[in-house]
Each structure stands twice: as C-alpha cells, then as structure tokens.
Design a protein that fits this description.
It is built from one helix and 30 strands. The chain has 342 residues and is mainly beta. The strands form eight sheets. The protein has a four-stranded antiparallel β-sheet, with no helix packed on it. It has a four-stranded antiparallel β-sheet with strand order 2-3-4-5, with no helix packed on it. The N and C termini lie far apart (38 Å). The model has no long low-confidence stretch (mean pLDDT 90).
Length: 342
C-alpha cells in the first residue's frame, strides 16, 4: 500500500542502532536497504503490504556504512572491522571486496565509516573512507583496489558528485578534502578548513555538484560553494543554527537532498526532528513532527515522494534506556519541498 503524503508508515523494528539507509537505484524502485550495528542488512518494500523482504547477517560485525551500486540487485556494506562486502540480494550471498587496514598496532581501528557508489558510467566502482585515514577506490567486479590515498584525519563523512566525478571527505581536524577521480587516480583538487567550528557529522553535495551542505555536532548546517573549482559562480558561504530546543543543542546527524527540487534538503538531528530547507534562498520550508529518539539516517526515494527515516538513538547522551529503534517511511508533498522565491 502506498504511503499517503504527510503520513508515516512503519517498516521495521531493529534491536541495535540503524547506521544508514539507501534506496536501490533502479528507477521507480520501492526497495529500501538499511544497515545496523547488529551486523545485519535489511531490505524493505516501502509500498508493499508486507514491507519485510529480507534480513541478512553479514560477516563484518557492526555495519557503519552502506552503498547501493547500480550493478544488478546488490548492496555494499562497510564494517567496523574495516571490510567492504557485497551482498547479492537474489542469491542472499555475500563476498569480500576489500579491507581497510590498521596503520599501527594499538591505534584506533580501520572501521569503514564511509561508503559510496560512484554511479553513472562508473557503475562498478565503490569509494570508501576509514578511521585509519585512508580513502580507497574499489572495483566490484575484480574485488580489487584501484587506488589508495592518505587523508589528513579520520573520515567522518563522505559524498560523491557523479556529474563531475568528485568525492568530498570530511575528516577530523575539520578538513574537507575534494578529490577528482577521473583518469583512474585520485587528484586532490581542494583541501580546506570547514566553515563550521565543530566536528562534521555529515556532508552532501548539491545535486548539480556546485556546493556542499555540512552538518555539525553543534547543531549547525554550513553551505559552501565550489567556485574555486570553476563549477560555481562566486557565492558567499553561510551557516545557520538548527536542531536546538531552548538552550539544548543537538548534533545534525544526516542530510539528504531532494532529487527534483535540487536546492531543497532535509536534516535529521539528535532531537528527533526533521526539517526541510531551501539551501539557495536560505529558508526553512517544512517542520516534520518529532520522532521519539534521534534521527540517524534519512533517504529520499527516486522521485522525492517518499522519505525513509531511521529513528535510532545515536548515544549522544551515553548508554541509557531509549525508545525502540525503528525504520519508517513518510509520504512527501511537493509543497513541503518546493523552493519559494525570496
């Protein structure tokens, strides 16, 4: 049954934290993948009467990241153990693509914290980044690395611009590193300090690749443009406060851009709230009712008529009792997302 606009439909309860959500990339697909700290991949049909399609336990331990390459019915995962694995949905079998390694004994782990599919003509390529300060491009078909490059710090967030074949990685030390991965190698084309003064939780390219939106632990979103790379007219970067209740400040955990209204994006925070913003005109468009606990991940479907939501405690207040972790999908109206003139 299709989800009505403005209504939330329950998809699943999860025993442990939900780390990421992603719709399968096939046009008009209603299949949604999720990864969790219990090491499982779940597949949900957001329009079906029975939304539970499959649950598969990966061999990586807790799963931190997820990608849905446009290569058959597959889901790629990044594990706390540093591994990148590919799950074939039709056969319910998985295989190892590669692994990030710990740099030195007794240091922080090699967790694959970020994973993205390159998309477009590079449908067989995945890019990953880790806590071991490495970014790696992987060839799914040959299960081998194409290149490996050092990062200035731990990778906390990453996104891909398939139009210009660029990757942005937000690292510790408040660095945003931009790589051009054409010609089979990674060229660092821009490395700059974040406009936000606190640690980055999420980073996303505008759909046309002209800028990025950043979310920080200090309840702010920063909008930065890439005029230095010659793909955007000179525009002044800006930031705004959000996800705050009275004097309490909550981290911004996730950002997702609307696939049709290109400057509109949704943010989810540790306050359990969702907001839709117009990034070009600096306006808040919609406030979505709060959920019982943190929003750990969000994803729009292919045409922006659905928003998948992970209501999942992210331990910003330490280990404590919290509401059940859940995955839901909400119908979205065009009027909630369409940019308004100044």
């Amino acid at each position: 049954m299709a989800t009505q606009s403005g209504e939330s439909k329950f998809l699943a309860k999860v025993a442990d934290g939900i780390s990421s959500l992603s719709y399968l990339p096939k046009e008009k697909s209603s299949l949604l993948a999720s990864t969790c700290w219990d090491g499982s991949v779940r597949l949900h049909d957001t329009k079906g009467s029975n939304p539970a399609v499959m649950v598969h336990q990966m061999e990586s331990g807790p799963l931190l990241s997820l990608a849905t390459p446009n290569l058959g019915s597959t889901v790629a995962t990044g594990g706390l153990d540093g591994s990148i694995r590919l799950l074939d949905i039709e056969s319910s079998t998985s295989r190892l693509i590669g692994r990030h390694k710990i740099l030195e004994p007794k240091t922080t782990g090699a967790a694959c914290s970020c994973l993205q599919a390159m998309g477009l003509e590079n449908e067989s390529l995945l890019v990953s980044a880790s806590w071991s300060k490495k970014m790696t491009l992987w060839d799914i078909r040959s299960a081998s690395s194409v290149f490996d490059i050092d990062l200035p710090g731990k990778a906390f967030a990453m996104d891909v611009d398939p139009i210009h074949q660029r990757v942005v990685v937000a690292t510790s030390g408040r660095r945003n590193c931009f790589f051009d991965i054409r010609r089979g190698k990674a060229d660092l084309v821009l490395d700059r300090e974040s406009s936000l003064k606190f640690q980055t939780r999420c980073v996303n390219f505008f759909p046309d690749g002209t800028g990025i939106a950043l979310g920080s632990v200090e309840g702010r979103v920063g909008i930065e443009f890439l005029d230095e790379l010659g793909i955007a007219a000179p525009m002044k970067r800006y930031a705004f406060k959000c996800h705050r209740v009275n004097d309490t400040v909550y981290p911004v955990n996730c950002i997702a851009f609307h696939p049709r209204f290109k400057s509109s994006f949704v943010t989810g925070g540790c306050d359990g709230a969702l907001f839709i913003w117009d990034g070009m005109n600096k306006k808040k468009l919609t406030t979505i009712s709060s959920f019982p606990t943190s929003i750990s991940s969000v994803a729009f479907n292919w045409d922006g008529t659905e928003l998948a939501i992970a209501s999942s405690y992210t331990f910003e207040e330490g280990d404590r009792d919290h509401p059940q972790d859940e995955i839901l999908v909400r119908g979205v109206l065009d009027s909630e997302c369409q940019p308004k003139r100044k």
